Amino acid sequence: MMKIQASYSCSSYLHKLVSTFVSILLLFHQHSLAKHHQPCPISTCGKIHNITYPFRLKTDPNHCGDSRYELDCKKDGPLLTMFTGKYYVQHIDYKRNKILLSDAGAVEDANCSFIPRYFLYDRSFNNILNEDEFGSQPFILDPTDPTRIAYYNCLNPIEDPRYVKVDTSRCNKPGYKWNNNVYAVLEPSLYEYHVRDIKVGCDFMVATLAKPRGNLEISMEGNFSYGEIHGMVIGGVEVSWLPLICEDRCGKGISCKVVDEDSGEVECDKHFCHYAYQTTDKCELQQQIFGYTRAYLRGIFIGFRSRITFSTRQLDNPVGLQYFDGGIFIGRNVLPIFLAARFLFGVVLLLVLFIYKWRRRHLSMYHNIENFLLESNLNPIRYEYKEIKKMTGGLRVKLGQGGFGAVYKGKLRSGPDVAIKMLTKSNVNNGQDFINEVATIGRIHHVNVVRLVGYCVEGKKSALVYEFMPNGSLDKYIFPKEGTDPLSYEKIYEISLGIARGIAYLHQGCDMQILHFDIKPHNILLDEDFVPKVSDFGLAKLYPVNDSIVPLTAARGTLGYMAPELFYKNIGGVSYKADVYSFGMLLMEMAGKRKNSNPHAEHSSQHYFPFWIYDQFKEEKDIEIMKDVSEEGINVAKKMFMVALWCIQLKPSDRPSMNKVVEMLEGKTENLELPPRPSFYPNETYRNHDDINSDHTSWSDSSSTSQATTNYSLDN
Fold it and tell me: Which fold has domain 376-468?
């Protein structure tokens, strides 16, 4: 029983406490409301005796009126600041929601035939308000088509009825230099007066607006006096505070129109629901949802644009509503952080993916090389990278730059010099160039093939160690520069024969058929005795000896030396004859001691050297380039030219094998017959005029090519 009483007593105490708290809150709320809604007295200033909401005097309590419609009571009456100009209030019509304003100069400049003090024009107002602007201006122009008056100060008198002279004899206005030629010009309707109507020598002073007068007929012919114009200016211009009425009656951002001036009734525009003012109950639910969404999106756009343009111009006067400002916060702060984080995440992800693929590619390359070395039984020595560095003295003496890396001079511990090629670009084809070189040179020994002494594979570093060729590559001897002694045709012939024997050995001297695919002067090295060595097997391929046609997925080699079947599939398959073609182009350059292609030759017929040489043989003419050459040298050069013409035949089946090339070079020139004319592409014939040096040649396509016979079988 005692527990029940105690419980009852406790609950009664809590009830009294809550009641007391609620009573205090209600009293405080009523006191606040009474304080907030204190009645405002009707103010008086000069002849205006009904100053009330929305207008207020500066001396009125702070809660009275609207600060945008504040009036300053002066000795000449209430003064309103509008567009930084000062205007005296002539009349306030609360039924029509209009106020009549006159320029301050109309009242204060009593001793001067009035020149308006402040600029006022139609464009000062914005009567055509869209949903973003409605309610942003305290006044609109009403009526919308007032009379416009412009004043000009002219150097000379103007004889134009539209220019009405202003009497300025009693004016002493600071800032103006009067010359008694001041004119007023009326523009009764917008765009009726143009810039072209301003007279020469007249400077624009000021413009103002006036309420139109029905009893004054205004025309561009000018039938009025300045007294009438002065009366219009004194009468002032009417403006309306309708935007505030619409805001109070319909809700902020909603337009309206007055339907009954006596009762002040207005009709609200139900279709105009501003996105930023959704607190009003005049908007339907669907409009509110749309407005909220639009406010956020608009705010996000403005905020984001201000962030990326580093401009706060649109943020200087924010709307101040939570939806719009919330969107600005998201667009200015949240969205840039999100996009930056997403961008950084994408960059990091791409970087990680790139590193992963790069490591996987390199690990795959090293794995391929290591597997090849483990499975191959090779004679070359495997060196460590530190031994390579020691051999080259820290990669000090650079001999040249190859297709897949630089070549440095080194010295073995046993004494001989070596050339070491550092394969810095081996990752481009998964280490295949390294495997190609080691697989080919590492298993063959021939006097005309460069010898691989050793190799190095250590992490990302790989190198090939060759025997050193002190005389360098062949190209500097067949295309000699100043300071290089040219080789005799006898020596060039010996070199060509050595190259042919080396290539023939590659094709048929090993247990595997080795196709070089990059025979050119740069890849022929010369030892101290000018013995040629075929080198650079980075593009080489190994095939069984009995394979006459080899599979090849892409063209390989150097332009100018590549066989046409690498491009044209309809002339025959790719085989060892591709190396024969390359050797033919090389042999042609060796015999001619010039490049096969020379667009700067004296005669157009010599632009492509093989064609010109063929024409010389065909016409049985002496070859002009072989001057001061012995008879034996001439015979050797003719033999080399003839063999080269056989090697560069378009169709692979028309070319000899390398064994046959060796036999032709070792034989006599008289046993060789002139082959068919070489061509660039299939189904090509050549018509030559009588004079080979006349620089007139022509080409045409034909369905057949000429054939010739020879005493030699082209294949073994």
Answer: Phosphorylase Kinase; domain 1 (3.30.200)
